[in-house]
Amino acid sequence: MSHYCDLAPGHPWHGPYHDDEYGFPVTDDTALFERLVLEINQAGLSWLTVLKKREAFRRAFDRFDIDRVAAFGKADRERLLDDASIIRNRLKVAAVIHNAGVIQTLRDTHGSFAGWLDHHHPLTKEEWVKLFRRTFRFTGPEIVGEFLMSTGYLPGAHRDDCPVHQRILSLCPAWNGA
């Protein structure tokens, strides 16, 4: 079984993501929302496809401005579904817009999306999945697991002997400090 740590180094797309983002603690709501959007859009596709379309997603979703995306209406949905530079899936587009509104509510109740995550941490992956399914749309076990691993809330992003793993440990990710 190959691991991301085996595949990513030196790769033009996977390498930078593996080395500088994957598994590192994320506390910024815009960055958390972006990661959630990317994970939702990866469902059924390769991560490489999503990474290659990342800049297009940033443009299409107003650089992941939560308030702007939450206010997207019918014309925005149609614009997104007509945009060949992103993944044009009606359910995924609707989920992104809906989830932006959910994050607005979480900011009201917990100060931020990160505050909501911290409030519920630590949970097992199964508990996180149940919580995300009650809270967000289009968030199954793989999406939730990858989102939480990629943002430092669940372990497993890197092998223990991966040099990036040591860098992440020095930043005290949530999964290592609970």
UniProtKB/TrEMBL annotation:
Pfam families in alphabetical order: Adenine_glyco (PF03352)
Organism superkingdom: Bacteria
InterPro entries, alphabetized: Adenine_glyco, DNA-3mA_glycosylase, DNA_glycosylase
Record's signal peptide: none
Protein name (record): DNA-3-methyladenine glycosylase I
Species in which this protein is naturally found: Billgrantia zhangzhouensis
Lineage: Bacteria, Pseudomonadati, Pseudomonadota, Gammaproteobacteria, Oceanospirillales
